[in-house]
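In full, the data:

***
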Amino acid sequence: MVTCYLGIGSNLGDRRKNISFAIKKIGALEKTKVIKASRIIETKPVGGPRKQGNFLNTVLKIRSDILPLTLHKKLQKIEKELGRTKAVRNGPRTIDLDILLYGDRIIKSKDLRVPHPKMLERGFVLRPLYELIC
């Protein structure tokens, strides 16, 4: 199994419930085990339209035997099940699930980039990630 770190964020609806449901659904994935979640932090949105609500963010450490592109598709399916729509780039969302790290792999495909290309620019990712790694 490979250790992976996933970024999770929500700024629509019951944000804590959205995150909780997402973690449960990720834990229910075949060949996947949730190891630990960081504390949830509240942050202002980065980019996107003005006047959207603050995000709740966390990072999840998992172990999985699901291949990266398949995991990405499964995470997109969970987003859709939890009501995510992609009407506006960086717009408000019920849930956002990103693969931050997938073991030590570097992936550059049309559909997926790992490590997450903007991870180092985002404190709302780095702080929770640091909590899990250190």
Remarks:
- The first strand starts at residue 2 and ends at 10.
- Strands lie at 2-10, 32-37, 41-43, 55-64, 96-102, 107-108, 113-114.
- Residues 119 and 125 are 6 Å apart (CA to CA).
